Amino acid sequence: MSFLLVQDIHHTYFTKTSATTALSDISLQVEEGEFVSFLGPSGCGKTTLLSIIANLIKPTQGTVILENEAVSTSKNKIGYMLQQDYLFPWKTIEENILLGLKLSKQLNSKTKANALNLLNQIGLSGVEKQLPKQLSGGMRQRVALVRTLTTEPKLLMLDEPFSALDYQIKLKLEDLVSGTLKNYGKTAILVTHDISEAIAMSDRVFLFSPSPGKLHRTFVMPEELRRLSPFEARNHEAFSSIFQTIWKELESLESRKQ
Questions:
Q1: Is 52 among the domain residues?
Q2: 81 band by pLDDT with thresholds 50, 70 and 90
Q3: Which UniProt keywords apply (predicted)?
């Protein structure tokens, strides 16, 4: 069985006066160590599906299986990295990265040493006693990544974590995050509006159609791109044609939406 199995997911948001179907008949699977992206027009339910996989929302219908267990029983197996870093401004960087370990009762001398070592590996040695306000946006996102990885989640959820950053910082962080996840053999799902980012970082790209959200098409990235860093992949000769193909599909979906 696949590492992550999403089966027949259907989700409707109910209010006193209305019912809005966000997702319909979503089924997909992700293999261990794979990096996949969810791409699609606004309103296609990407973040809703991410929240269902992370067990933050219970779907109206369907199941999510992670390592042969219902995701509702998968404690500490899922990590989340968001657009905002959500670091506590009054806590030091060290206190922030150890927070997940503390809350999950995994904090000890070994896990603390591992967290500080990862902070060093990711290029942030010497900032342990500083406060978040003393770091740049890109540095804070690196801290958020360390905080997410310290609890050793099996699956990482990346919800547009680079979208608020300057373009140059964004490209550097894509490389850093991609390389770090590969080194640690992590499985990741990225939600993004950026076609280039999805192509450069992913093994597969799931394209969703809106109203309600459905899986429209799956794009498998060629091996020659997957072997490269995201920055290198953007400059590969195969990149442009893949971008154009996905762009046209996305344009078609956007025009249908209107």
A1: no
A2: confident
A3: ATP-binding, Nucleotide-binding, Transport
